Predict the 3D structure of the following.
Amino acid sequence: MKNNPRIVFFGTPEFAVISLERLIDSGYRVVAVVTAPDKPSGRGLQEKASAVKEYAQLKSIPALQPANMKDPAFLEQLSQFQPDLQIVIAFRMMPRQIWSLPPLGTFNLHASLLPQYKGAAPINRAIINGETETGVTTFFLNEQIDSGQIILSERVSIGPEETAGELHDRLMVIGAELVIRTVEKIISGGLKEHSKEEEEEASGNDPAALKPAPKIFREDCQIDWSQPVEVVHDLIRGLSPYPGAFTYLKMADGTQQILKILRSTVERVATGVKPGKFITDGKKYIKIATADGYIHVGELQLSGRKAMNSVDFLRGARGIIPETLAI
């Protein structure tokens, strides 16, 4: 067990697959994966497996898909794999009888520098809040969300134009390397208690300085053009490509359509116009007024259409009244 523990891997989306792949490529024994049940997807609503299950099948690794994490049949099946260590990435909450099962513990990879940005949307929230730095952290699971003993962390800078999707892809790779380092540290016995120290460093001993990362809801995604231009820009890139920051575009027939803005740049200038004013030459650019500048739209998506750049959008933008945007 000490040098090559039996590992059960918990995860569902692509973000988790890279870590699973690195574990296998590094020679670790992943004896099973636990992932979400198949879900209907696409126009035909065909059952689709998770990204983790698809990869596990390629590697002939058993995949467990419990609908209920407390189901006695699932718990019995899991225990039969006799895990020495469990790794959790982008998965749901689990009860004590699961995370306490292996003798080496169960650790999670979280996409922030804990204790900052605990919660479901750490990547989005860090960019929305205008952070210039984030990271990835591994920690042992306990009863509380994202609050167990910290094992390792890695700091990562955030680019001024970087979107949540781009940061996600970078953290996915950096996180996979941190997972390998964490496994090495656990099996070498090199752990030390330091979660309190990490928390004090991140929060400056002030609990009020801790920033949460709650799930993103639709009401979080509507753009308020009366906000400062930097705030609007950070919202746009923090929600790109999904779920997308949106506004309402008024059409020639008086109806409104949802317009998602997926990429933007900032012009800091006194506009002299009402926030939400839609300004374009009809050919090359679109910019929208905020409280203290303009958002230059680089990529956008009108409801029911594919995402495109502003030039292509304007080429086909017949029947749009560009003077008004709903706030």
